[in-house]
Amino acid sequence: MSTTPLATSSDIALNLALSLISASVAPVLLLDGDLSVVAASQSFLETFDIGTDRVAGVKMADLGGGEWNTPSLWALLKATAYGQAAIPAYEMDLASPSGSRRLVLNAQRLVYGDGQGVRLLLSIQDVTEQRDRAQQKDDLIRDKAVLIEEMRHRIANSLQIIASILLQGVRKLSSDESRDYLRDAHQRIMSVAAVQRQLSGAELGDVDLRDYLTDLCRSIGDSMIRDHDRLTLSATIDDTLVSSGKAVSLGLIVTELLINAIKHAFPKQRPGRITLDYRSQGEGWTLTVRDDGVGLPPDPSIAKPGLGAGIIRALAQQLGAVIVITDAEPGVRVSIVCAPPPLHTS
């Protein structure tokens, strides 16, 4: 009576691994401890154009035309085989006669219970198309960023040209009121041009408010203050980054407040000082323009609000802020205050 020897655990494990590889629709290799091929899935053979008669027993480094002979991959697989490392997702470029491919490799060490050796189960994913699409997307984003920066430069240059034309027109007018309107329009355009210059060096529209408002104050002072020994303009801005939209709104508010102070706070060549201050407190912030001029009129009703007051009011409302006007003794203090949202308690 003959008997059939029982299958060992290593035989069962090997047969299971071979069955999995045979049924796999993805490129898979089973390697021994010397990194020789024990079995390969049909998908691996077809994907990498390797004949079935040249697989079993061949070292992985000798597959195909030698394109798998990559020292870094070889070292990682060896380390994985001896339990010194793991390859959860190793990316590599495979240069073959049919072209270059981007691959993601995952290696798992299989240990048989009877100590007869180790096996490596190596799955391979071709991610060439995904990486190409990602690269194309990155290229489009980069090209878009270049176009946006070029557009910002052109807008800033165009605004400066328009502002220069307006300033030239001021000299040809005989009416003081008309000249004032053109000067006001000039400063409003310059404030928008200033933020465009800042945007060209900003990350995705974030604007350094200190640089922007400091440049804006300098521009307004240079064009509207004739005697800087008589009237000074200074700015103190904290280290804040804001969106380009908020920067434009704040710049227009500052422009209106500074123009108003320069025009009305120091009549008859009165000397004085104008200060700009911006401070953020968490999600809230306060912008203040203060002068030490003649102060508020005794009867506020005689001060007819103009275009600038309407612009400030509309912009403050857009920013979710309120306008607070107080007597600075001497002078006037105008604050644009945006309070942080209230804390919700349960």
UniProtKB/TrEMBL annotation:
Keywords of this entry: ATP-binding, Kinase, Nucleotide-binding, Phosphoprotein, Transferase
Source organism per UniProt: Brevundimonas mediterranea
InterPro entries listed in its UniProt record: HATPase_C_sf (IPR036890), HATPase_dom (IPR003594), His_kinase_dom (IPR005467), PAS-like_dom_sf (IPR035965), Sig_transdc_His_kin_sub2_dim/P (IPR011495)
Keyword Hydrolase recorded: no
Domain Histidine kinase: 150-342
Annotated protein name in UniProt: histidine kinase
Enzyme class: transferase
Entry annotated with the keyword Methyltransferase: no
EC number: 2.7.13.3
Domain of life according to the entry: Bacteria
A Gene Ontology molecular function term of the record: ATP binding
Catalytic function, reaction form: ATP + protein L-histidine = ADP + protein N-phospho-L-histidine
